[in-house]
Amino acid sequence: MMINDIVVNILNKKSEPIKIEMIGDLADEFRAGRNPSELLELLESDDENILNIALYILGEINIASISILKEIVKKLEILSVHKESQIRYKTLINLASLSHKVNTDKLNNIYKKMSQDSNESISKTAKELLRNGNLRF
User: Fold this and answer.
1) Chain-centre distance of CA 2, in angstroms?
2) What's the mean per-residue pLDDT of the chain?
3) Predicted confidence band of residue 137 (pLDDT cuts 50, 70, 90)
4) What is the mean pLDDT of residues 78-98?
5) Contacts of residue 5, Cβ cutoff 8 Å, sequence gap at least 6
6) CA-based, 20 to 30 A from 19: which of 4, 60, 64, 112?
7) What is the mean predicted confidence (pLDDT) over 57-62?
8) Residue 1 above 70 pLDDT?
């Protein structure tokens, strides 16, 4: 079954607890070795629910492949200007979590753009990333 079909199937479930469990199971599949390049398809979606799931899973897994990381960063750069602030914020957090694996100049350029975001939480977080290189929780 294609990844998009799996996620749509999850979203079509009526029960929230079942959806949450299925999303967790899917994240577990990626942790166990499912190809992270499949997330690229989800990150291209126009559906915010699909994007939210993709961004959640991305934040939960470790990606070793540099070529896949580069492609994911390209997708995240596009999402950094998404119309929905929730998507932009989750994108920023995912970029920060990848900071030890990807080109710092590339990330700083994205952070600079996001530091001008109309959403105060996003702009504040992006500015902190520019100052410190990481987030302090």
Assistant:
1) 19
2) 93
3) very low
4) 96
5) none
6) 64
7) 94
8) yes
The two three-digit tokens of residue 14, written as one number: 């009526």
Q: pTM for this one? A: 0.91
The larger pLDDT score, comparing residue 71 to residue 132, is at: 71
Are the beta carbons of 109 and 99 closer than 8 angstroms?
no
Q: What is the 3-state secondary structure (H, E, C) of the chain?
A: CCHHHHHHHHHCCCCHHHHHHHHHHHHHHHHCCCCCCHHHHHHCCCCHHHHHHHHHHHHHCCCCCHHHHHHHHHHHHHHCCCCCHHHHHHHHHHHHHCCCCCCHHHHHHHHHHHCCCCCHHHHHHHHHHHHHCCCCC
Per-residue buried b or exposed e for 18-44, using 16+ beta carbons within 10 Å of the residue's own CB = ebeebbeebbebbeeebebebbbebbe
- Give residue 125's pLDDT: 96
Q: Is 106 exposed, middle or buried (CB count within 10 Å of its CB: 0-12, 13-18, 19+)?
A: middle
